[in-house]
Design goal:
Blueprint (H helix, E strand, L loop, with lengths): L4 E4 L11 H9 L2 E4 L3 E5 L2 H6 L9 E4 L2 H13 L9 E4 L2 H6 L10 E4 L4 H8 L7 E6 L4 H9 L4 E11 L12 E4 L2 H10 L9 E5 L1 H9 L6 E3 L7 H18 L8
Parallel strand pairs: 1-2, 1-9, 4-5, 4-7, 5-6, 7-8, 9-10, 10-11
Antiparallel strand pairs: 3-8
Helix pairs in contact: 1-9, 7-8
């Protein structure tokens, strides 16, 4: 078989040509389209209060993404909550910490950060066991993070202040793609919501992460390219491995595969 048209369920990289996908386009003569399958919407202050949510009584906040940063400050404004100068900020990464400069004077705040994963950040949080933490979150989140905090006896409150919803994909011709690439269970839900009659047939599906792979199986679809793996820690590397193998098989069977 041939793989020529690929749909990636994420926004296009800022500089596609210099991205890993840009390299794959040139190397394998591909056509890759990028479409956001999901989007983030803020939950209103009224809805948050109705769920008995509150920012009061917390001395620190855990921020795991830029979405969490944006929606925390949005919600604080909507609720007319005055953020204390003494509030401590614990961020998933250095880049998320620097993003705080959009809202606060960075040098005048107590800001801590990890190395891009929550296990590293938890090591920092454990050194501040006396704090009462607020964790802004989406309605779809990794439960493992909260399980780790429970295991470490961290005093925290979960604040669901934004939600992940399906994008409108009515403009997308889903059947023209030989392969689709997904990065979250929400992306699979969006596929089902937008294309309830979708029939995979011989089309290929790639997925990043075990929860995404599980969602694909639960949706009755077949996963061909899982990532990460020991030899392919990124989705683009897993895709390249597959295309190299496919080309080899096509040449062995006397068919033209994906060539330059």
């Amino acid at each position: 078989m041939k793989v020529k048209n690929i749909l990636v369920s994420q926004p296009q990289p800022a500089d596609l040509e210099k991205s890993p996908y840009g390299e794959l386009i040139k190397k394998f003569n591909l056509k890759i389209d990028f479409h956001k399958f999901i989007k983030v919407e803020g939950i209103s202050a009224k809805e948050y209060r109705r769920a008995k949510g509150s920012f009061n009584g917390h001395t620190a906040i855990i921020l795991t993404s830029r979405h969490a940063v944006d929606h925390f400050f949005r919600m604080a404004k909507e609720m007319r909550f005055e953020i204390p100068d003494s509030l401590k900020y614990f961020c998933i990464s250095e880049s998320t910490a620097y993003y705080l400069q959009k809202y606060v004077q960075y040098r005048k705040r107590k800001i801590f950060y990890g190395k891009q994963n929550f296990v590293d950040l938890l090591d920092v949080i454990k050194k501040h066991q006396e704090e009462t933490f607020l964790v802004p979150s989406s309605d779809i989140h990794k439960q493992s993070m909260f399980t780790l905090m429970d295991g470490a006896n961290i005093n925290y409150s979960k604040a669901i202040i934004y939600r992940t919803v399906a994008s409108n994909l009515s403009h997308v011709d889903i059947d023209k793609y030989d392969m689709m690439i997904f990065f979250s269970p929400a992306g699979i839900k969006s596929l089902q919501n937008n294309f309830p009659e979708y029939n995979q047939g011989e089309k290929l599906i790639a997925a990043f992460g075990t929860t995404t792979a599980k969602a694909i199986k639960e949706a009755g679809l077949k996963l061909t390219i899982p990532a990460p793996t020991q030899t392919a820690p990124s989705m683009s590397m897993a895709l390249e491995e597959y295309l190299v193998k496919l080309n080899r098989e096509n040449r062995r069977n006397g068919r033209n595969g994906n060539r330059r």
